[in-house]
Amino acid sequence: MMSLVIPISLHTQTEYPLYHSSLHWLVLILLVFFIDNEEQQSQQQTFHPTFALRIFALLIPLFTAIFMLTNLMTISKITQYERSRNPDIRLLMDIINPLVFQDRFDFHLSYFRLGVAVQTDNQQELKAIIDWTEYTIERTPKSYFYIVLYLAYKHNNQLDKAEKLLEHARYLYPKDGQLANIDKQPNSQATKTISSAQSTAQRLD
Q: Which range of residues forms the domain containing residue 138?
């Protein structure tokens, strides 16, 4: 009976299946129920739950269901934003629960802010983006945050910092295609994203 849950148990040691897939969570719950149902003892005792246990028995499944439903909505919004040829920032603004995908949410939001700041030549906003991204990289050194910081340095006329940062980022992520070509393609996807961010901001105004 216990061998039924071994695949999912091993999966949790290498990835986050219960965060990424509601189906994994549902299967695990059903397997645990099945094992418990098959192995229950014939001797039974009456259990009188306290008021607190009754409340938690209702609230925990309720909040879990709400969390997973809002997480599914987040996945849908972020995926739609990433696949769109002209991303609309309002898709991200509609997200209620970005917790599981906080890094991707922060990246797209900061990239949009960067695009608007570059197009409007807002140096104060560029400085704020630089400060935020530097702090974020200390905690979450993802390659896409290095891209945001590199572009922010570049448009803030901190070219030496930009080159040093790009060199360090390429050392950390030698196989990242965007980092490899970001300083070689002036009409790259980054430039297109910046332009679309400005047009979206104008529509929101």
A: 98-204
User: Which tokens hold the place of 2?
Assistant: 């216990």
Going by C-alpha positions, the residue among 205, 48, 9, 182 that lies closest to residue 120 is 205
Q: Using alpha carbons only, what angle is made at residue 151 by residues 128 and 177, rounded to the nearest 5 degrees? A: 135
Distance between CA atoms of residues 98 and 78, nearest Å: 9
Question: What is the structure's pLDDT at 45?
Answer: 77
Q: Is residue 126 part of a domain?
A: yes
pLDDT tens across 133-188, in order?
999 999 999 999 999 999 999 999 999 999 999 999 999 999 998 899 888 765 44
Which residues lie closer than 8 Å to 31 by C-beta, 6 or more apart?
4, 5, 8
Q: Position 148: which residue type?
A: V
| CATH code of 154's domain | 1.25.40
Q: Looking at the domain assignment, is residue 185 inside a domain?
A: yes
**Tens digit of each residue's pLDDT (9 = 90 or more) over 168-179:** 999 999 999 889
Residue 138 lies in a domain: yes
Q: Does a structural domain hold residue 11?
A: no
Number of domains, the chain:
1
pTM: 0.70
> What are φ and ψ of residue 43, in 5° steps?
-80, 130
